[in-house]
Structure formats: structure tokens, C-alpha cells
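Chain A, query sequence.
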Amino acid sequence: MNIKLSDATAAELAHRPIEYDTGFTLLPGKYMIKFLARDDETGRIGTYETTFTIPNSIRRRSEFPSVPWCSAANASS
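Chain A, predicted structure.
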């Protein structure tokens, strides 16, 4: 993903941290993520890589307690 910055914004980034916020929907499993940033003028890059696990929080149907289902009718006289 390329992000275009104005000259003023690019100059500000030299004096403060960069924050990028986004979201992804992932299924349970093991993942590896790698972030890469490249300076377009110098070609220098920096990377960060880590692994993480999304646990399976969905319980199987047999793990739920059984709940009796019933219906009742109110008779009014």
C-alpha cells in the first residue's frame, strides 16, 4: 500500500512517530505478519516480523449444555 504525503506532512514525520491503524478479519489459526517501510528517496527499508495465533473460540455443538425447549399457552377465562 502506497501512501502519498504532502511535503508539509512528510516534514512533520521526521519529528514524531508514525501511526497507522487498520483492521483485518482472520479465521482461527497461526499467522506471521511482516511490516515493511521504504524511504522512496534513499531506497532504505526497515522491517518488523512476528508470529501470532488466533484461538478458536467457537465451541462445538456437543460442548454446549442441553437446553429444554418448551412452549406454554396461557388460557384466559
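The radius of gyration is 26 Å. The first helix runs from residue 7 to 13.
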